[in-house]
Automatic annotation (TrEMBL):
InterPro entries: ARM-like, ARM-type_fold, Armadillo, KAP3. This is Kinesin-associated protein 3b. It holds the Pfam family KAP. GO terms for molecular function: kinesin binding. GO terms for biological process: animal organ development; cilium organization; microtubule-based movement.
Length: 722
C-alpha cells in the first residue's frame, strides 16, 4: 500500500528551453547544478533535452479530470485556500504557527501545499525551524483542532513517502505521537456512539428526538474530519513500517489493536488502508496472534463481498495470510465465510485467491464436511472438466484431493457420471494428482467402493505399464483400498500376472520406498482372500516380506503394514502353517511385542494371539515372553528404588520407609499391588479376540501415513503475500 512514487520523481524546471536554445550548453549546466545527476550521464541528458525541444506542445483544452487512485490521499475540507503557496515565504508561514488557531491552520495549510510538491522537500528540510515548529504545534494543539492535526501530520506524511526521510520523522517522534492521536480519536468515537445510542432510545419524546438529530449532525461532521485524520496518520505509520525495527516498536505500542478497532468504520478508503496495513503485519506470528485475540476474522467477514474492488482484493489477501492458522480457519467457517468464498469461485477477479483460502480450510477434517452444504463441489467439478486435456491448475486439483477425503463430499463428486469422467481423464492422461483424488474417493466404505468394481481391471493394467512411478503408486493405492468381498482377487492377479510384479517390488532398493510400501499394502488387501493368500505364500512372498522387514525396521509404517500382512495370512490354515513352521516370522513378532509404536504393538498382539491359539509350542514362548517383560519392568522399578535408598533425605529419617508396599505402586502407570501374580495374568491382560477396532484405518487395517509422511512437506501450500 505504498504511494505511487512515480509521481514524486525529481523534476527540473527548464524555463529557458525553446526552439533556439543551445541544448549542449543547457545539458552541461543541468549536470553541473543538479547534484544527483552524475557527469557520465551528460549525453543522456542532452538527448532528453533534444526530445523535449522538438516535441509537440499539448493543446490547452481543458481535459476531463481522471478519477483519483484509491490509495491517494485527497485534500480535506478546509484545506484549500485562495493564497498560492510560495517556497520563498516559508519563514512567514512558520510565523503563523505561533498565532491564533485559525492562523495556525492557515500557516500549516500553506506549508502543506509546499510539501505536496516533492521538489520542495529538500529545501523545506534545510529550514532549521520548520519541522521543529510543526512538531511543537502538533504536540501542544492536536486535541484542540482536528483540522490542524490532520494538516501537520499530512506534511510529515509527504516526507514519509521517501525512505531517506524516515530517520528525520523518527527523530521528532512523530510516529509515537500519531499512535497516541489515533488511540484518543478512537476513544472519542466510542463516546459519540454511546451518546447517540442513549438519545435514540425514546423516539416518541419530541425534545429528545430533536436533541438526537442535532447530535447526529454534529457526529457526522465529526466523523468526516476524524476519518481524514485517521487515514493520514495510519498512512504515515504504514510508510514508516518499512523498517521492521520500527514495525516492532509499533507492535509493542498496540498498533494491531488500533487497526482492528478501525475495521468497524464504513469509509472504504480508510478500510483499504487499514486492511492493507493489517495484511503487511500479518506475516509475523506475534501480529497474527494479536489479530486472533481481537476477533479480526469476524470483523473482516462483513467486508466479503463488497463493491469496491481494491477493498475486496486486499481483504481476501489478509484472510489468506490468516488462513495458515488452524484456529482462524475454524473461525472463518463459524462466521459464515465458507458460502461467501464459494460464491466468489464464479468471479474471475477473485476466483484464485478465494480458492486458496478454501483450500486451506479444506485441510481441516472438521471443516471438510461443511463444503457439502454449499455449491462448491459442483463448481469445482465443472472447472475440472472444462480443462479438457489441458493440465489442471495445481491449486484446483489440490483442493479437490482434500475434499475427496470426506465421504459425503466423495458421494457428491461421484453423482451422475462424476467418477466415470474422472477415471477416463486420469487413465488417458496418466495424471498422478487426478488419480490421488480418485484414491481418496476409494477409501470410503459402502456404495462408493462398489463403484470401482468395473475399473479394477483398468487399474491393474496400469501397474505393469511403463509410465510415471507416481501414477503407479496412486493406482496401487486405489486398488489396495478396495476391500470388497465380491471381488475375485485370485482371478485378477492371474489375468494380469501381478504376483511376480509384487514379489519383485518387495526387494529393498527395487523402487522408491513409497512404491514398495504400496505394494505391501496391496498384498495385505489381497491376502484377505484365502486362495490369494495361498498363491502368494507359494510364490515366496513371505521370506521377501521378512527380508524387507529387516531392511526397513526403523520405519514404523513399513513394519506395521508388513505385520498386518502376517495377521491376514495367519487366518488361513495353509498360510498359517507356512508362517509358523517354515519362517521366523513369529520370532520377529515377539521382538516387536514391546515396540514404542502403539499400533505396531496392537497388530503384533493380535497376530501372536492367533498363533498361540493354533500352535502350543509358540503359545508357551509367547506367554513366557509376556511374563518376562512385565517381570523385568517390576525388577527395574525395584532396582531404581534401591538406588534411591542411598539418598538419606529423600524419604526422611525412617529406615523402614522403603518397606512400605504402597511406595512401589504409587507411580502413575504402575499396576496396583496384587499378590500372587502369575504368567496367566499377563496373557489375560491383552486382547485375545483379534479385534482391530483400536486401529485408525478402514476395515481394521493399520492407518497409513498417506499424505503425511514425516520426511515430506504438505502436498501443496501457498506463501503469504505482503
Amino acid at each position: 500500500m505504498q504511494p505511487d512514487e512515480s509521481q514524486y520523481l525529481k523534476r527540473i524546471r527548464l524555463r529557458s528551453l525553446n526552439a533556439s536554445t543551445d541544448v549542449s550548453a543547457l545539458a552541461r549546466k543541468v549536470v553541473e547544478e543538479c547534484k544527483i545527476i552524475h557527469p557520465s550521464k551528460l549525453a543522456e541528458v542532452e538527448h532528453l533535452l533534444l526530445y523535449l525541444q522538438n516535441r509537440k506542445k499539448p493543446s490547452m483544452e481543458k481535459k476531463e479530470k481522471k478519477p483519483s487512485k484509491p490509495r491517494e490521499l485527497l485534500p480535506f475540507e478546509g484545506m484549500e485556500i485562495d493564497e498560492e503557496a510560495n517556497i520563498n515565504k516559508t519563514d512567514d508561514y512558520i510565523e503563523l504557527l505561533y498565532e491564533s488557531m485559525p492562523e495556525k491552520i492557515r500557516g500549516s495549510t500553506l506549508i502543506l501545499h509546499l510539501a505536496r510538491n516533492p521538489d520542495n522537500l529538500e529545501e523545506l528540510l534545510h529550514n532549521k525551524t520548520l519541522l521543529g515548529a510543526l512538531t511543537r504545534v502538533l504536540r501542544e494543539d492536536w486535541k484542540h483542532s482536528v483540522e490542524l492535526a490532520t494538516t501537520i501530520i499530512y506534511v510529515f506524511f509527504c516526507f514519509s513517502s521517501f525512505s531517506q526521510f524516515h530517520g528525520l520523522i523518527t527523530h521528532y517522534k512523530i510516529g509515537l505521537l500519531c499512535m497516541n492521536i489515533i488511540e484518543h480519536e478512537l476513544k472519542k468515537y466510542d463516546l459519540w456512539q454511546d451518546e447517540l445510542e442513549k438519545k435514540s432510545k425514546d423516539p416518541e419524546n419530541q425534545s429528545l428526538q430533536k436533541e438526537y438529530e442535532k447530535t447526529l449532525k454534529k457526529y457526522q461532521s465529526f466523523l468526516v474530519k476524524q476519518e481524514q485524520l485517521l487515514r493520514v496518520a495510519f498512512y504515515l505509520l504504514l510508510n514508516l513500517s518499512e523498517d521492521t525495527r520500527t514495525e516492532l516498536k509499533m507492535r509493542n505500542k498496540n498498533i494491531v489493536h488500533l487497526l482492528v478497532k478501525s475495521l468497524e468504520r464504513e469509509n472504504q478508503e480508510l478500510l483499504v488502508l487499514v486492511v492493507s496495513f493489517l495484511k503487511k503485519l500479518s506475516i509475523f506470528l506475534e501480529n497474527k496472534n494479536d489479530m486472533a485475540e481481537m476477533d479480526t476474522v469476524e470483523k473482516l467477514a462483513r467486508l466479503v463481498p463488497c463493491e469496491q474492488e481494491d477493498l475486496m482484493n486486499v481483504t481476501l489477501r489478509l484472510l489468506l495470510n490468516l488462513s495458515f492458522d488452524t484456529g482462524l480457519r475454524t473461525k472463518m467457517v463459524h462466521v459464515g465465510l465458507l458460502p461467501k468464498l464459494t460464491a466468489l469461485l464464479g468471479d474471475d477477479t477473485y476466483k484464485h485467491i478465494a480458492m486458496r483460502i478454501l483450500y486451506h480450510i479444506s485441510v481441516d477434517d472438521k471443516s471438510k464436511s461443511m463444503f457439502a452444504y454449499t455449491d462448491c463441489i459442483p463448481q469445482l467439478m465443472q472447472m475440472v472438466f472444462e480443462h479438457g486435456e489441458e493440465k489442471i491448475d495445481t491449486e484446483l486439483i489440490s483442493f479437490c484431493i482434500n475434499l475427496a477425503a470426506n465421504e459425503t463430499n466423495a458421494q457428491i463428486i461421484c453423482e451422475g457420471n462424476g467418477l466415470k469422467m474422472l477415471m477416463k481423464r486420469a487413465l488417458k492422461l496418466k495424471e498422478p494428482l487426478m488419480m490421488k483424488m480418485i484414491r481418496n474417493i476409494s477409501q470410503h466404505d459402502g456404495p462408493l467402493k462398489q463403484l470401482f468394481i468395473e475399473y479394477v481391471g483398468d487399474l491393474a493394467a496400469q501397474i505393469k505399464q511403463e509410465g510415471g512411478e507416481e501414477f503407479v503408486i496412486e493406482c496401487l493405492g486405489t486398488m489396495a483400498n478396495l476391500t470388497i468381498p465380491d471381488l475375485d482377487w485370485e482371478l485378477l492377479l492371474k489375468e494380469y500376472n501381478l504376483v511376480p510384479y509384487l514379489k519383485d517390488h518387495l526387494k529393498p532398493g527395487s523402487a522408491e520406498d513409497d512404491l514398495i510400501l504400496e505394494v505391501v499394502i496391496m498384498i495385505g488387501t489381497v491376502s484377505m482372500d484365502d486362495s490369494c493368500a495361498v498363491m502368494l505364500a507359494k510364490s515366496g512372498i513371505i521370506p521377501a516380506l521378512i527380508e524387507l522387514l529387516n531392511a526397513q525396521q526403523e520405519d514404523d509404517e513399513f513394519v506395521c503394514q508388513i505385520i498386518y500382512v502376517f495377521y491376514q495370512m495367519v487366518f488361513h490354515q495353509a498360510t498359517r502353517d507356512v508362517i509358523i513352521k517354515d519362517t521366523q516370522a513369529p520370532a520377529y513378532l515377539i521382538d516387536l511385542m514391546h515396540d514404542k509404536n502403539v499400533e505396531i504393538r496392537q497388530v503384533c498382539d493380535n497376530t501372536l494371539d492367533i498363533i498361540a491359539e493354533y500352535d502350543e509350542e509358540w503359545g508357551k514362548k509367547i506367554q513366557s515372553e509376556k511374563f518376562r517383560w512385565h517381570n523385568s519392568q517390576w525388577l527395574e522399578m525395584v532396582e531404581s528404588r534401591q538406588m534411591e535408598d542411598t539418598e538419606p533425605y529423600m524419604y526422611g529419617d525412617d529406615p523402614d520407609a522403603l518397606e512400605q508396599p504402597d511406595l512401589f505402586y504409587s507411580t502413575d502407570g504402575m499396576m496396583a499391588p496384587e499378590p500372587g501374580l502369575s504368567p496367566d495374568f499377563y496373557s489375560q491382560s491383552y486382547s485375545q479376540n483379534g479385534d482391530f477396532n483400536a486401529c485408525n484405518g478402514a476395515d481394521g487395517r493399520p492407518a497409513t501415513a498417506y499424505g503425511f509422511r514425516p520426511d515430506e512437506p504438505f502436498f501443496h501450500g501457498y506463501g503469504s503475500t505482503r
